[in-house]
């Protein structure tokens, strides 16, 4: 099922927000591990999880109406 036009901005924000959170999370995690900073690594992992969660929510919302055999 295709998302309605009124939901377009919300889905776009979730997609872009998720991708940006994943990229920033990867960078923070890499820098945190390199410089042995536990707090930076923690925030990087939190951003990775948040970004993945936003993308999962977007995919679930898009596939709400379809049924799998």
Polypeptide structure, described:
With 69 residues, the chain is an all-alpha fold. It has a domain at 25-63. 75% of the residues lie in helices and 0% in strands. The chain is built from two helices and no strands. It has helices at residues 8-34, 38-62. Helix 1 runs antiparallel to helix 2 (38-62). The two termini are 15 Å apart. The mean pLDDT is 86. Keywords: Membrane, Transmembrane, Transmembrane helix. This is LPXTG-motif cell wall-anchored protein. It comes from Bradyrhizobium daqingense.
> Structural class from helices and strands?
mainly alpha
Overall morphology: elongated
What oligomeric state is this? single chain
Number of helices: 2
The largest β sheet comes out as:
none
- Rg, alpha carbons: 15 Å
Average pLDDT metric: 86
Quote the beta fraction.
under 5%
- Report the count of strand segments: 0
| Topology as a string of helices (H) and strands (E) | HH
Q: Extract low-pLDDT stretches.
A: none
């Amino acid at each position: 099922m295709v998302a309605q036009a009124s939901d377009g901005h919300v889905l776009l924000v979730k997609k872009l927000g998720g991708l940006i959170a994943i990229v920033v999370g990867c960078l923070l995690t890499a820098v945190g591990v390199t410089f042995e900073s536990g707090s930076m690594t923690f925030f990087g992992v939190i951003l990775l999880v948040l970004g993945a969660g936003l993308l999962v929510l977007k995919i679930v919302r898009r596939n709400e109406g379809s049924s799998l055999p």
